[in-house]
Design a protein that fits this description.
By secondary structure, this protein is α/β, with parallel strands linked by helices. The protein is about 35% helix and about 25% strand. A hairpin with a 4-residue loop joins strand 13 and strand 14. Helix 4 runs parallel beside helix 5, helix 5 runs antiparallel to helix 11 and helix 9 packs across helix 11. It starts with a strand and ends with a strand.
Length: about 325
Protein backbone atom coordinates (compact mmCIF):
# COMPACT_ATOMS: atom_id res chain seq x y z
CA UNK A 1 0.00 0.00 0.00
CA UNK A 2 1.34 3.45 -0.90
CA UNK A 3 1.98 5.78 2.00
CA UNK A 4 0.09 8.98 2.81
CA UNK A 5 2.37 11.81 1.70
CA UNK A 6 2.41 14.74 4.10
CA UNK A 7 4.05 18.13 4.31
CA UNK A 8 5.07 19.92 7.47
CA UNK A 9 4.47 23.66 7.67
CA UNK A 10 6.52 24.81 10.65
CA UNK A 11 9.21 22.56 12.14
CA UNK A 12 9.57 23.81 15.71
CA UNK A 13 7.76 23.48 19.02
CA UNK A 14 4.51 21.58 18.75
CA UNK A 15 5.36 20.08 15.36
CA UNK A 16 7.81 17.85 17.21
CA UNK A 17 4.88 15.96 18.76
CA UNK A 18 3.34 15.46 15.32
CA UNK A 19 6.65 14.16 14.00
CA UNK A 20 6.67 11.62 16.83
CA UNK A 21 3.13 10.60 15.91
CA UNK A 22 4.04 10.25 12.23
CA UNK A 23 7.03 8.11 13.19
CA UNK A 24 4.61 5.82 15.06
CA UNK A 25 2.56 5.26 11.88
CA UNK A 26 3.88 2.97 9.16
CA UNK A 27 1.55 4.32 6.47
CA UNK A 28 2.67 7.98 6.51
CA UNK A 29 5.68 9.58 4.86
CA UNK A 30 6.87 13.19 5.19
CA UNK A 31 7.89 14.35 1.72
CA UNK A 32 8.20 18.13 2.20
CA UNK A 33 8.92 20.53 5.06
CA UNK A 34 9.13 24.28 5.47
CA UNK A 35 10.27 26.67 8.17
CA UNK A 36 11.82 30.15 8.06
CA UNK A 37 14.61 28.98 10.39
CA UNK A 38 17.16 27.03 8.37
CA UNK A 39 18.40 24.88 11.24
CA UNK A 40 14.88 23.75 12.11
CA UNK A 41 13.81 22.88 8.58
CA UNK A 42 17.04 21.00 7.80
CA UNK A 43 16.88 19.09 11.08
CA UNK A 44 13.23 18.12 10.47
CA UNK A 45 13.96 17.09 6.87
CA UNK A 46 16.83 14.88 7.98
CA UNK A 47 14.81 13.34 10.79
CA UNK A 48 11.74 12.59 8.66
CA UNK A 49 13.51 11.81 5.38
CA UNK A 50 11.84 14.66 3.48
CA UNK A 51 13.36 15.31 0.06
CA UNK A 52 11.91 18.78 -0.51
CA UNK A 53 12.74 21.66 1.83
CA UNK A 54 11.37 25.22 1.72
CA UNK A 55 11.90 28.38 3.77
CA UNK A 56 8.22 29.34 3.95
CA UNK A 57 4.73 27.96 3.40
CA UNK A 58 4.29 30.14 0.32
CA UNK A 59 7.09 28.34 -1.51
CA UNK A 60 5.88 24.95 -0.35
CA UNK A 61 2.38 25.62 -1.65
CA UNK A 62 3.75 27.15 -4.87
CA UNK A 63 5.66 23.96 -5.65
CA UNK A 64 3.45 21.21 -4.24
CA UNK A 65 0.00 19.98 -5.23
CA UNK A 66 -2.42 17.11 -4.72
CA UNK A 67 -0.16 15.15 -7.07
CA UNK A 68 2.66 15.35 -4.51
CA UNK A 69 0.89 15.84 -1.16
CA UNK A 70 -2.05 14.11 0.50
CA UNK A 71 -2.17 16.21 3.70
CA UNK A 72 -0.51 19.01 5.65
CA UNK A 73 0.44 19.40 9.31
CA UNK A 74 0.49 23.12 10.14
CA UNK A 75 2.17 24.30 13.36
CA UNK A 76 3.12 27.97 13.16
CA UNK A 77 2.82 31.11 15.27
CA UNK A 78 -0.72 32.49 15.82
CA UNK A 79 0.06 35.58 13.71
CA UNK A 80 1.76 33.71 10.85
CA UNK A 81 -1.17 31.97 9.17
CA UNK A 82 -1.87 34.50 6.43
CA UNK A 83 -3.49 32.67 3.53
CA UNK A 84 -1.91 29.29 4.37
CA UNK A 85 -5.12 27.40 5.12
CA UNK A 86 -7.08 29.20 2.40
CA UNK A 87 -4.54 28.14 -0.20
CA UNK A 88 -4.60 24.56 1.09
CA UNK A 89 -8.39 24.55 0.72
CA UNK A 90 -8.20 25.92 -2.82
CA UNK A 91 -5.70 23.17 -3.65
CA UNK A 92 -7.93 20.51 -2.04
CA UNK A 93 -5.25 19.44 0.46
CA UNK A 94 -6.56 18.26 3.88
CA UNK A 95 -4.80 19.80 6.87
CA UNK A 96 -4.24 19.45 10.58
CA UNK A 97 -3.55 22.84 12.19
CA UNK A 98 -2.38 23.53 15.71
CA UNK A 99 -4.25 25.83 18.05
CA UNK A 100 -4.81 28.69 18.22
CA UNK A 101 -5.74 28.43 14.54
CA UNK A 102 -5.18 32.19 14.24
CA UNK A 103 -5.79 35.36 16.25
CA UNK A 104 -7.72 36.78 13.28
CA UNK A 105 -11.28 35.65 13.92
CA UNK A 106 -12.50 36.93 10.55
CA UNK A 107 -9.85 34.82 8.82
CA UNK A 108 -10.91 31.76 10.83
CA UNK A 109 -14.53 32.31 9.79
CA UNK A 110 -13.49 32.42 6.12
CA UNK A 111 -11.37 29.27 6.42
CA UNK A 112 -14.25 27.45 8.12
CA UNK A 113 -16.76 28.50 5.47
CA UNK A 114 -14.58 27.50 2.55
CA UNK A 115 -13.55 24.17 4.11
CA UNK A 116 -17.23 23.39 4.67
CA UNK A 117 -18.14 24.28 1.09
CA UNK A 118 -15.40 22.00 -0.22
CA UNK A 119 -16.18 19.20 2.28
CA UNK A 120 -12.46 19.05 3.02
CA UNK A 121 -11.02 16.96 5.84
CA UNK A 122 -9.61 19.34 8.46
CA UNK A 123 -8.50 18.98 12.07
CA UNK A 124 -7.41 21.32 14.86
CA UNK A 125 -5.00 20.17 17.54
CA UNK A 126 -7.35 19.97 20.51
CA UNK A 127 -5.50 16.87 21.62
CA UNK A 128 -7.39 16.37 24.89
CA UNK A 129 -10.50 15.23 23.01
CA UNK A 130 -8.48 12.08 22.32
CA UNK A 131 -7.27 11.57 25.88
CA UNK A 132 -8.69 8.45 27.48
CA UNK A 133 -9.37 10.32 30.75
CA UNK A 134 -11.58 12.89 28.99
CA UNK A 135 -13.40 10.02 27.30
CA UNK A 136 -14.09 8.48 30.70
CA UNK A 137 -15.56 11.74 31.96
CA UNK A 138 -17.73 12.08 28.85
CA UNK A 139 -19.02 8.53 29.36
CA UNK A 140 -19.64 9.09 33.09
CA UNK A 141 -21.61 12.34 32.93
CA UNK A 142 -24.86 10.90 31.44
CA UNK A 143 -25.08 8.39 34.31
CA UNK A 144 -25.79 11.14 36.85
CA UNK A 145 -28.39 13.82 37.42
CA UNK A 146 -27.52 16.83 35.30
CA UNK A 147 -26.23 19.99 36.90
CA UNK A 148 -23.37 21.11 39.09
CA UNK A 149 -20.37 23.34 39.47
CA UNK A 150 -17.26 22.99 37.36
CA UNK A 151 -13.85 24.51 38.03
CA UNK A 152 -11.19 24.61 35.35
CA UNK A 153 -7.66 25.98 35.65
CA UNK A 154 -4.38 26.41 33.82
CA UNK A 155 -1.99 28.13 36.23
CA UNK A 156 1.74 28.51 35.74
CA UNK A 157 4.39 30.82 34.31
CA UNK A 158 5.07 32.63 31.06
CA UNK A 159 6.07 30.28 28.21
CA UNK A 160 9.25 31.21 26.38
CA UNK A 161 7.72 31.74 22.93
CA UNK A 162 7.86 35.34 21.73
CA UNK A 163 4.18 35.83 20.92
CA UNK A 164 3.11 35.34 24.54
CA UNK A 165 4.43 38.77 25.48
CA UNK A 166 1.81 40.74 23.54
CA UNK A 167 -1.91 40.07 23.87
CA UNK A 168 -2.52 41.14 20.28
CA UNK A 169 -0.10 38.43 19.11
CA UNK A 170 -1.38 35.54 21.23
CA UNK A 171 -4.91 36.56 22.24
CA UNK A 172 -4.01 36.18 25.91
CA UNK A 173 -3.56 32.99 27.87
CA UNK A 174 -7.17 31.90 27.50
CA UNK A 175 -6.93 32.05 23.71
CA UNK A 176 -3.39 30.72 23.37
CA UNK A 177 -3.15 28.04 26.07
CA UNK A 178 -6.21 27.56 28.25
CA UNK A 179 -8.36 27.19 25.15
CA UNK A 180 -7.56 23.48 25.60
CA UNK A 181 -9.64 23.35 28.78
CA UNK A 182 -12.23 25.72 27.31
CA UNK A 183 -12.62 23.27 24.43
CA UNK A 184 -12.91 20.41 26.93
CA UNK A 185 -15.81 22.22 28.59
CA UNK A 186 -17.61 22.54 25.26
CA UNK A 187 -16.84 18.90 24.44
CA UNK A 188 -18.30 17.75 27.77
CA UNK A 189 -21.19 20.17 28.34
CA UNK A 190 -22.17 21.53 24.93
CA UNK A 191 -22.42 25.13 23.78
CA UNK A 192 -22.28 28.01 26.22
CA UNK A 193 -25.31 30.13 27.06
CA UNK A 194 -23.26 33.06 28.35
CA UNK A 195 -19.80 34.11 29.46
CA UNK A 196 -18.53 36.81 31.80
CA UNK A 197 -14.80 37.37 32.30
CA UNK A 198 -12.43 39.61 34.22
CA UNK A 199 -8.67 40.08 33.93
CA UNK A 200 -5.82 41.42 36.05
CA UNK A 201 -2.53 43.06 35.09
CA UNK A 202 0.27 44.64 37.12
CA UNK A 203 1.61 41.55 38.87
CA UNK A 204 4.11 40.71 36.13
CA UNK A 205 6.48 43.66 35.67
CA UNK A 206 7.51 44.25 32.03
CA UNK A 207 11.27 44.34 31.66
CA UNK A 208 11.72 42.58 35.00
CA UNK A 209 9.55 39.48 35.06
CA UNK A 210 8.93 39.44 31.33
CA UNK A 211 10.00 41.12 28.10
CA UNK A 212 9.63 44.93 28.05
CA UNK A 213 6.74 44.63 25.58
CA UNK A 214 4.71 42.32 27.87
CA UNK A 215 1.09 43.50 28.10
CA UNK A 216 -1.01 40.35 28.36
CA UNK A 217 -3.18 39.31 31.30
CA UNK A 218 -1.43 38.10 34.45
CA UNK A 219 -4.56 36.18 35.30
CA UNK A 220 -8.17 36.01 34.21
CA UNK A 221 -11.38 34.37 35.33
CA UNK A 222 -14.32 33.43 33.12
CA UNK A 223 -17.73 32.28 34.36
CA UNK A 224 -19.49 30.22 31.70
CA UNK A 225 -23.10 29.05 31.87
CA UNK A 226 -24.09 25.89 30.04
CA UNK A 227 -27.40 24.10 29.61
CA UNK A 228 -28.69 21.63 32.20
CA UNK A 229 -27.67 23.78 35.19
CA UNK A 230 -23.91 23.52 34.68
CA UNK A 231 -21.81 26.58 35.50
CA UNK A 232 -18.04 26.57 34.96
CA UNK A 233 -15.44 28.91 36.40
CA UNK A 234 -12.32 28.88 34.25
CA UNK A 235 -9.16 30.53 35.56
CA UNK A 236 -5.95 31.26 33.66
CA UNK A 237 -2.74 32.55 35.22
CA UNK A 238 0.86 33.02 34.07
CA UNK A 239 2.36 34.97 36.99
CA UNK A 240 3.89 32.02 38.84
CA UNK A 241 7.64 31.46 38.61
CA UNK A 242 9.26 28.50 40.35
CA UNK A 243 6.22 26.26 40.79
CA UNK A 244 3.02 25.47 38.93
CA UNK A 245 -0.34 25.06 40.62
CA UNK A 246 -2.71 22.19 39.86
CA UNK A 247 -4.29 22.55 36.44
CA UNK A 248 -7.24 20.60 35.11
CA UNK A 249 -11.01 20.29 35.62
CA UNK A 250 -12.95 19.60 38.81
CA UNK A 251 -16.58 18.53 38.22
CA UNK A 252 -18.88 18.35 41.23
CA UNK A 253 -22.18 16.54 40.64
CA UNK A 254 -24.84 15.50 43.13
CA UNK A 255 -23.32 12.10 43.86
CA UNK A 256 -19.84 12.09 42.35
CA UNK A 257 -16.73 14.24 41.97
CA UNK A 258 -14.59 13.96 38.83
CA UNK A 259 -11.16 15.48 39.44
CA UNK A 260 -9.15 15.59 36.21
CA UNK A 261 -5.49 16.55 36.63
CA UNK A 262 -4.25 17.93 33.35
CA UNK A 263 -3.00 15.11 31.09
CA UNK A 264 -1.97 13.07 34.10
CA UNK A 265 -4.72 11.32 36.05
CA UNK A 266 -8.42 11.29 36.94
CA UNK A 267 -9.62 10.93 40.53
CA UNK A 268 -13.22 9.73 40.86
CA UNK A 269 -14.84 10.09 44.29
CA UNK A 270 -18.24 8.79 45.38
CA UNK A 271 -19.76 8.16 48.79
CA UNK A 272 -18.27 4.68 48.89
CA UNK A 273 -14.99 4.72 46.96
CA UNK A 274 -12.13 6.72 45.50
CA UNK A 275 -10.42 5.68 42.28
CA UNK A 276 -7.24 7.22 40.86
CA UNK A 277 -6.83 6.43 37.15
CA UNK A 278 -3.61 7.29 35.33
CA UNK A 279 -3.53 8.48 31.74
CA UNK A 280 -3.33 5.45 29.48
CA UNK A 281 -2.71 6.75 25.97
CA UNK A 282 -0.65 9.20 23.93
CA UNK A 283 -3.39 11.53 22.80
CA UNK A 284 -1.48 13.28 20.01
CA UNK A 285 -0.66 9.96 18.35
CA UNK A 286 -4.32 8.93 18.51
CA UNK A 287 -5.43 12.34 17.20
CA UNK A 288 -3.05 12.18 14.26
CA UNK A 289 -3.98 8.55 13.48
CA UNK A 290 -7.62 9.57 13.26
CA UNK A 291 -6.79 12.52 11.00
CA UNK A 292 -4.84 10.27 8.62
CA UNK A 293 -7.67 7.72 8.64
CA UNK A 294 -10.12 10.49 7.74
CA UNK A 295 -7.83 11.63 4.92
CA UNK A 296 -7.70 8.10 3.52
CA UNK A 297 -11.49 7.75 3.65
CA UNK A 298 -12.10 11.38 2.63
CA UNK A 299 -14.55 11.63 5.53
CA UNK A 300 -14.51 14.94 7.51
CA UNK A 301 -16.93 13.47 10.06
CA UNK A 302 -14.30 11.07 11.38
CA UNK A 303 -12.40 13.94 13.06
CA UNK A 304 -13.39 14.89 16.63
CA UNK A 305 -12.20 18.47 16.28
CA UNK A 306 -12.67 19.65 12.69
CA UNK A 307 -11.92 23.29 11.92
CA UNK A 308 -15.60 24.22 11.94
CA UNK A 309 -16.12 22.93 15.50
CA UNK A 310 -12.79 24.23 16.79
CA UNK A 311 -13.84 27.67 15.59
CA UNK A 312 -16.62 27.61 18.20
CA UNK A 313 -14.00 27.30 20.94
CA UNK A 314 -12.00 30.16 19.42
CA UNK A 315 -15.14 32.32 19.27
CA UNK A 316 -15.88 31.56 22.93
CA UNK A 317 -12.34 32.49 23.97
CA UNK A 318 -12.55 35.79 22.11
CA UNK A 319 -15.97 36.42 23.65
CA UNK A 320 -14.24 36.15 27.03
CA UNK A 321 -11.76 38.80 25.87
CA UNK A 322 -14.66 41.02 24.78
CA UNK A 323 -16.24 40.61 28.20
CA UNK A 324 -12.95 41.53 29.91
CA UNK A 325 -12.79 44.70 27.83
CA UNK A 326 -16.43 45.74 28.23
CA UNK A 327 -17.24 44.46 31.72
CA UNK A 328 -20.43 42.99 30.26
CA UNK A 329 -21.90 39.50 30.13
CA UNK A 330 -21.84 38.06 26.59
CA UNK A 331 -24.97 36.06 25.77
CA UNK A 332 -25.31 33.49 22.98
CA UNK A 333 -28.40 32.47 21.03
Amino acid sequence: MSKVRVGLIGCGGRQGAHMEAIEAMDNVQVVAVCDPVEERRLKAAARMGAERVYDGYEKLLDNESLKTLDALFIAIEPTAHGDCELRAIDMGIPFMVEKPMTVDLALAEEVSRKATEKKLVTAVGFQDRYLDLIGMIKDELPKHKKGGLVYGAWIGGIPGVWWWQKKRDCGGQLVEQNIHILDNLRYLFGEALSIYATNTTGMVVPGVDAKPEYDTDDHSTAVIRFKNNFTATLVSACYMKSVNATSGILITLGDIVLDYRLRNNLIIRTGTETRDIRRGNEQTIDMDREFIAAVLKKDPNMVRSPYQDALKSLRLAFAANDSMASGQVIYFD
